[in-house]
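2024-03-11 09:14:02 DEBUG pipeline.ingest accepted 1 chain
2024-03-11 09:14:02 DEBUG pipeline.ingest length=513
2024-03-11 09:14:03 DEBUG pipeline.predict start
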Amino acid sequence: MIYPLPWWLGVIMNLKSIVAWNIQHGGGSGERGRKIVSELAGLKADVIVLTEFRNNSTGTLIKARLAELGYSVSHPAAPERANSVLIASRNKIIVSYPLDPELTDQRHLWVVDLGWLKLCGIYMPLDIAKLPYWEALHRAAVDEKGADLFIGDFNTGNNIIDRAPGATPFIASEYFDEFGKGRLRDVWRAMNPEVREYTWYSLRAKNGFRLDHAFATASVFDRITRCEYVHDARERRLSDHSALRMVITTDSPQKIAAAQRARSVIYTIKDPIRPDLLKIGKDNKWPQRLRQAQSHSPRELAVAGTWSVDRDEAAAIERRILNAFPRVDETDGVEWVSGGPDPVARISGILNQLPDPQAQIEIRPFDDWRDYVKPIRSNRQRRLWIGQERKTGRLKVVHSPHVDNFHRICPTFSCLGFRWVAAWQFPAEMWERSAALHATDAAIVDMWSRIVNRDGFGENSPRVGWLREGIRHDAMTQLFLENGLIPFHVGKNRNGKTFVDFSSVDSVNPVSP
């Protein structure tokens, strides 16, 4: 599924979409290959970059289907069983050529000039075989007249954030890190600086890696309005890779910035445990607030409706809507109100505006503390924190290097109320500050990952950190003690307020809401 673009963005901008997708060994020769051929029409992209493309019988079907859909196609010459790159464009491909003629094998780096964009499609080989190609990419990166966008399967990433904790380290990670420090930017990472999201999973080791990337020059990066991973085809096992989709405009950066500043979203969210309540708020980066809200509930939340409004007027509009609904005092969450009958129609009447068309949104995992992955910024050791939904007893586990974050950003999206009930750490004498992730910090992150994957929804769930119903705090206490952790007793802040009151912790028996 794709994050839906706001309806107004497509009206005022000239947008083009680019999709890069590794189709796994050419797509296969049987039913999977035929499904991939059918899938191409559903991509609805202006430019398609297929990696692990093979110029065999399935490749011939793919090219024929793309031609039927109106695409121009280009790919390097390669043996039938060799993985390579195919690039298809709805606009005419002016010229295509290998990135570096000096390379012995040209099938891994292929450039097309589309007139409005010069793009290099990438399928990087594995292990040390990738090194000559990384060197070629670094030479191309400083060429002012070369490609503006490098996109595809790099089979490489950053060794801290682009692989699951404990997973096999990337070979040539240093090449990857340096590639994004010059005139190029890692597009998805720049838009998601502290998020873990993986595009390939090891079925044997059950861990993930971000292998598929896009690097853009500043002039192109400033015109990219969206960059996201699409996991649907991988989850349906059409391929072992997720796709990378970006949206780019041919308009000027000034017009883009003005359009993005101009609009905001009024949103309404419901929690199924209290269908009588409604969360109302505003969001300038929708669906960011939905991501945050979902991480604060162990249940799947629903969007009742959204309305695009002028950003300068959004705060006043939000207050006007909230004033029209009765407040609810029994929840710690902010802006939960009594919804009443048909609240969407009621809000539409207040705004004299129909709600935005609703599309299914794939919610990426969000967690302020899980996403905090820059160890150089950590001046306190990581800890495991246990939270509890007040009226159900459901537990949530997070890790964090900063206790202040919990006091300042305590969940406000829970309609039932939430409290922190315990914190655990390794003995202080075992930890020291360092530029790399300290061994005890890494152990905390690894334990968090094992807990949420074994007892929760998994670390890639939007409800990240929440544990299954019936998991008890006393059982977790025994686990922590067996692994050498000790309780962390929170003191008071500079204003004399206690961060977390653990004095009332019991065995966390669920009660009826």
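2024-03-11 09:14:41 DEBUG pipeline.report The CA atoms of residues 36 and 443 lie 41 Å apart.
2024-03-11 09:14:41 DEBUG pipeline.predict end
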